[in-house]
Amino acid sequence: MQAAIPLFGRFTALDAVGPYEVLQRIPDIDVVFVGHQRGEVRSDNGMLGLSCDARFDELPRPDIVVVPGGIGTRVLLDDEALLDWLRKAHAHSRFTTSVCTGSLLLAAAGLLDGLTATTHWSAVELLEHLGARYVEQRVVEHLPQRIVTSAGVSSGIDMALRLVELLVDTEAAQAVQLLIEYDPQPPFDCGSLAKAGEAVRDRAAQLRR
């Protein structure tokens, strides 16, 4: 199986690397970073670069699509090269998925029309403007449509483990979870808007700028 992770300028690193770390643990899955052109793409803060090893036209029919998010998604909402690739790839994929604001690109491609979906809490209004119906869940599945969306950044790991379960089996997903020692025990219980107080929300808004 071939998993394609599209990269673009100002993507969020963990959105791409989290699912990559999960999926590449399965011997039958080859993960390929794909983009408008081959070569390095820098993350949202410019500090990290990943390399695209294939252009969109070189990878037309991946089995799995994982679209990361990041502030760079906003300028791609009318990028027909990417959106057309998403539409055509989804026509043949086993699953088309997103992490964080990657769901904005799925929605812009018309893949979430009328469906419930999730995204980063800061992009809810834009997601709904693009035709999806936001729900406050960490992972949202539409298995008949082969669509899975996940919320902000870290939720991509959860989503990728679920993909392994769907593509292989539950024990394989559990084994990968053990291999990456994914056993979250955060020091604070404020990882969602529902749990965060006003001061924390204000500070988060400042840090996003």
Automatic annotation (TrEMBL):
InterPro entries, per database record: Class_I_gatase-like, DJ-1/PfpI, INH-QAR
Record-annotated DJ-1/PfpI domain positions: 2-165
Gene Ontology annotations of biological process type: regulation of DNA-templated transcription
Transmembrane feature ranges: none
Protein known as: Thiamine biosynthesis protein ThiJ
Species of the source: Mycolicibacter longobardus
